[in-house]
Amino acid sequence: MRLIFAGTPEFAALALEALIAAGHDIPLVLTQPDRPAGRGMQLQPSAVKKVALAHGISVFQPEKLRDPATHEPIRNAGADIMVVAAYGLILPQAVLDIPKRRPGGCINIHGSLLPRWRGAAPIQRAIEAGDDETGVTIMQMEAGLDTGPMLLAEALKVGAGETAGELHDRLAAQGARLIVDALARLDQLQAVPQPEAGVTYAAKIDKAEARLDWNAPAELLARKIRAFNPFPGATLPLAGETVKIWRAEAVAGSGKPGQVLAANADGIVVAASEGALRLTELQKPGGRRLASADFLRGTPLRVD
Fold it and tell me: Which residues of the chain have pLDDT under 70?
């Protein structure tokens, strides 16, 4: 099948690799423009662009797709289907109408079981909310935000203690497998409208959300820490500093919020508004990520 692929991060790159391996003809890839990254803030290509260039596929990187002039490369590709995964740009109706297949010429790989967690950050929001289950939905795209009819969906259990980064990798592999399966069976799949009940929205992660407060229940803090690992990394005040917390779990304990209840090789236990949090991997400003035992060697804490 002749495809255009639109995507940007690693979640999408795995799907692109799977489609190439499946033998699809992909004359054009859309991805976001190169962005500054790293300590030197040098322009870096997206994960999708790297895969496309490695396979000799033409890459188109518009800032936006509102201008009709930006639609010409897409139209000229003559694709039957456009596959979209975490692209990061809104596709106007004029672009959705370009692929030849009718109906459903644009197909999206979404990292949740729709209609739960429509929007930009479904993986993080599922962990933050304490969902036991999530998954991938393959859907036909329309002008609304992740509102189109569903072609295929598969559930995935969220692991106990699983971070957003770890869940992302499993969902990316699942999405890559499902899009290949969906395209192979496209004529047999029935597009099913999404239920009206159960709609939730996964707003984009704001860095300010990662500044946590001990005046919250320990279970909620633990979920947020997992949801914001690896980006943007949750922070909490500890020993007079704002420390990034990479691994933690809710445990029994009580005290004034922020009070250190224990500090040893098993972790640093700090009271929250309800229960306590055992911190097991931490990072001081400008420092490295450290297991709690190593952290305590450089930063002894007084147990109250």
Answer: none
Residue range 2-202, CATH number: 3.40.50.170
The verdict on domain 209-298 having CATH code 3.10.25.10 is yes
pLDDT (0 to 100) of residue 102: 87
Digit-coded pLDDT (tens) for 7-36: 999 999 999 999 999 999 999 999 999 998
Structure tokens at 299: 């930063």
Could you state, in order of their start, the residue ranges of all structural domains in the chain? 2-202, 209-298
pTM of the prediction?
Answer: 0.95
